């Protein structure tokens, strides 16, 4: 599949790619139109958008796969998806990978939290045994039919067992076949440097920018120099869209006007252009002739 080969080529190249998050087809299309080379389907964002609820493992695997199928069909760039814990044990992981692969995604992230999981920046996380997660990674690798489909091995152990334990886990996930490694929620620059030094020879690395919270003072260039290949920004689109809707609704509620004149707004026509209406109208004419 071309998007899977594209993602592999991107990760084989120099530097890092910035990958914004999305939560539905519209946000994924906007990421593509902005010129980014890949997009990430965030479980946190999908939980908010689809359920109106926090990221506490409430979404089912089928809901996430259905969402990813719509998103993947709407774009031409690689879609990396949050596969949470794989929704169960190693056998569940096999089916999760198979259904995501059928949906057309380019990479699947699997994490070592217990089920039900929660957002990696929330308190109360727990992780499964390293050996159990190794088995789940092996199951994921064996389940894929397309060897270009990439498996992201994520560990949430840093805040529970310590950074060194997280590095040991990540190396074990790479040995089990994970194509990309992701240590969740490092606290400071020194911890980020230790993670990069310990893992950048094992597999391409993900760094997740802590959007909406204080972030370590590292630029994208700094992160690339440390050896990170993917700079993930999973919820920025969600936060921006939510803030925009709140402003518009507040204006409507207080001033009986749907638009704040101080804030530029899309017109109906421009939005239709973004969604590709002119192309569809041309197709209508062609098929009517």
β-strand percent reads 5-15%
Provide the domain count.
1
DSSP strand tally: 8
Kindly report how far apart the N and C termini lie. Answer: 34 Å
Q: For the record, what CATH class applies?
A: Alpha Beta
Given the C-alpha coordinates, what overall shape results? Answer: globular
Structural class: alpha/beta
What is the CATH topology classification name?
A: TIM Barrel
- Regions with little confidence, pLDDT below 50 for 5+ residues: none
Order of helices and strands: HEHEHHEHEHEHHEHEHEHHH
CATH superfamily label: Phosphoenolpyruvate-binding domains
Keywords: Lyase
Protein name: 2-methylisocitrate lyase-like PEP mutase family enzyme
GO molecular function: oxo-acid-lyase activity
Organism: Rhodococcus rhodochrous J45
Explain what you see.
- This protein has 289 residues and is of the alpha/beta class.
- The protein has a single domain, classed as Alpha-Beta Barrel (TIM Barrel).
- An eight-stranded parallel barrel has the order 1-2-3-4-5-6-7-8, surrounded by nine helices.
- Helix 4 packs parallel to helix 5, helix 5 packs parallel to helix 6 and helix 8 packs parallel to helix 9.
- The chain is globular and about 55 Å long.
- The two termini are 34 Å apart.
């Amino acid at each position: 599949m071309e998007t899977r080969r594209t993602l592999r080529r991107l990760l084989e190249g120099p530097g890092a790619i910035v990958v914004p998050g999305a939560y539905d087809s519209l946000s994924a299309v906007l990421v593509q139109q902005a010129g980014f080379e890949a997009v990430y389907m965030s479980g946190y964002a999908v939980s908010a958008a689809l359920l109106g609820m926090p990221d506490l493992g409430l979404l089912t695997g089928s809901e996430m796969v259905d969402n990813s199928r719509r998103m993947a069909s709407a774009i031409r760039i690689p879609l990396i998806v949050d596969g949470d814990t794989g929704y169960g044990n190693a056998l569940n992981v096999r089916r999760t990978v198979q259904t995501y692969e059928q949906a057309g995604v380019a990479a699947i992230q699997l994490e070592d939290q217990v089920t039900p999981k929660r957002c990696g920046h929330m308190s109360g996380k727990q992780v499964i045994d390293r050996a159990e997660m190794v088995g789940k990674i092996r199951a994921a690798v064996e389940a894929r039919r397309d060897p270009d489909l990439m498996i992201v091995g994520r560990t949430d152990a840093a805040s529970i067992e310590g950074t060194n334990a997280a590095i040991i886990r990540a190396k074990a996930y790479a040995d089990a076949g994970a194509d990309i490694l992701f240590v969740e929620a490092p606290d400071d620059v020194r911890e980020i440097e230790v993670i990069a030094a310990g893992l950048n020879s094992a597999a391409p690395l993900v760094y997740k920018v802590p959007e909406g919270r204080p972030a370590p003072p590292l630029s994208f260039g700094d992160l690339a120099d440390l050896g990170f290949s993917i700079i993930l920004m999973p919820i920025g689109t969600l936060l921006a869209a939510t803030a925009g809707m709140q402003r518009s609704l507040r204006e409507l509620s207080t001033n009986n006007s749907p638009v704040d004149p101080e804030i530029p707004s899309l017109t109906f026509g421009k939005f239709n252009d973004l969604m590709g209406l002119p192309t569809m109208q041309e197709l209508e004419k062609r098929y009517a002739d």
